[in-house]
Amino acid sequence: MARPREYDAARALDDIQRTFWARGYHGTSLQDLEAATGLRKQTLYREFGNKDAMYARALSLYLDRDVAALVAGITDETEMRPRLAALFGAVLAPVRDGDRSGCFLCNASVDHAGADPIIAEMVQNGLEATRRLMADALALDPRYRDDDTARRAGSIRLTTGYFGVRVMIRAGTPLDQLEIVAQTLIDSV
Length: 189
Fold this sequence. Notes:
single chain, mainly alpha
């Protein structure tokens, strides 16, 4: 008879995600993951696969849960500028509480996408989903609604700025400067 699991796999994945998010792929050892989850290496491997698979699952969790929650929080806005303001407001809210973890997608793009084609594909998909999110916001404004070229250019500009803000958060840029950058991006469209 098989022994029942004595751990919560979803909680363990949360712990894995937090550890990779804070330390990065290369800064996280198996010992760090064991300490974060309270699980032994063999259990981690059996449940989540090797370190690369754990990182991919942590990034997938970020995209499926954390980014989805961010998007859900802004879609009530039916005008372009309020939607963009809600997006940047949601991104800056954790900074007000002292959270400088930034964006796991940004971190992954710098930290591990160049070494892992699975992560590179996930990052590219995340970047494109963000660009589409920006394009959807722009489409709420009559100036962009019927102008595919302007909407695409604007969405690329906003996406670049958005990820710049996310990196600046991680780098410790003061909140007042982040707010100026966010407002400048919103005013640019």
